[in-house]
Specification:
Helices cover about 45% and strands about 20% of the residues. By secondary structure, the chain is α/β, with parallel strands linked by helices. The protein has two domains: about 210 residues, Spore Coat Polysaccharide Biosynthesis Protein SpsA, Chain A, CATH 3.90.550; about 80 residues, no CATH class. Strands 1, 2, 3, 4, 5, 6, 7, 8 and 9 form a nine-stranded mixed β-sheet that branches. Helix 6 runs parallel beside helix 10, helix 9 packs antiparallel against helix 10 and helix 11 runs antiparallel to helix 12. InterPro entries: Glyco_trans_2-like, Glycosyltransf_2, Nucleotide-diphossugar_trans. It holds the Pfam family Glycos_transf_2.
Length: about 300
């Protein structure tokens, strides 16, 4: 007898059928078979109905939104289709490694107080081969336990605020821990990190599995790259850090507030991108990032003097 599905892989999709097929194939390659999949097409330019139908797998379903809901709206729509105890929002341009489901379900079963489980990730490029970037290398320098561990409280959130080391798409959520529409459409880039912070501030804990079981793809057409190029990402990261600092102070979480106030990784990445733009002759973009960095530093200095 087939076991009931334990986990749903909900794939928010907009475009690029090739990447979507790789994501689906990575689920088909899992070492367990008691899963479900839902592809939620956000009214994109490349419908995936034929691709999903050709798979002829009753575990895999496809829904196309009547109108474009946007990133947060489509993620929330994905969650509305979940009926299993656990769910992973698998990005349509990423891939799972074969033991992902087996490992996160085992960790969730062994730690029933965890609202979600996350894993380490491997960075891949547009061609699916291993890749690297300076921000990813910098994250490896963040001090954190080398073995599986809990992330909880002020100490846990401070580490995430300082190092942003969690690749949010690796998160496998306990469905019962998710509120209705948990992702806030007011964010374009930080919505998953904002939700993770909300869980921790509410007293939830996360379980870290220190195995690379997810392949996170960096390529020029994804949301992260687009928002990085024109500085929107950094504007939002700074706004998020200020908002989280206020929330942390209100709760007496001084470590988290301090990490948000210094936001060293954000500023270092902004400076690096400014110099990269300058070296490549993108002078307007470089000036924009330089102005943003200077303004952020001066604002912080002014705040300290006021205090």
């Amino acid at each position: 007898m087939t076991s009931p599905a334990a986990i749903t892989f909900a794939i928010p999709y907009y475009s690029n059928l090739g990447y979507l097929r790789e994501a689906i194939d990575s689920v088909l390659a899992q070492t367990i078979s008691n899963w479900e999949m839902i592809v939620v097409d956000d009214a994109g330019p490349e419908p995936a109905a034929d691709l999903v139908a050709a798979l002829n797998d009753p575990r895999i379903n496809y829904v196309r939104n009547d109108v474009n809901l946007g990133l947060a709206g489509n993620w929330n729509e994905c969650l509305r289709h979940v009926t299993t105890p656990y769910v992973t929002l698998l990005h349509s341009d990423d891939r799972l490694l074969p033991r992902y489901a087996e490992a996160v379900l085992a960790a969730a079963d062994n730690h029933p107080d965890a609202a979600a489980v996350f894993t380490d990730a491997v960075i891949i490029g547009p061609d699916g081969l291993p890749a690297r970037s300076l921000p990813d290398l910098a994250k490896r320098l963040i001090r954190r336990p080398a073995t599986d561990h809990d992330v909880v409280g002020d100490h846990g959130l401070a580490g995430i605020a300082a190092g942003n080391y969690v690749f949010c798409p690796t998160l496998c959520y306990r469905a019962a821990s998710l509120a209705t529409d948990p992702f806030d459409g007011g964010w374009k880039f930080m919505l998953d990190l904002e939700h993770m912070a909300t869980l921790l501030l509410a007293g939830s804990r996360l379980r870290a599995v220190r195995q690379p079981l997810y392949e996170y793809r960096r390529h020029g057409s994804n949301q992260t790259s687009t928002l990085t190029a024109d500085s929107q990402r950094f504007v939002e990261e700074i706004r998020f850090a200020k908002a989280l600092e206020a929330r942390a102070l209100n709760q007496g979480w001084t470590r988290t507030a301090r990490a948000c106030r210094h936001r060293i990784l954000v500023r270092a990445h902004l400076a690096m991108q400014m110099l990269s733009d300058l070296a490549r002759g993108r002078f307007a973009a470089s000036r924009q990032k330089g102005s943003l960095l200077l303004n952020d530093l001066l604002t912080r200095r002014g705040s300290q003097q006021t205090v």
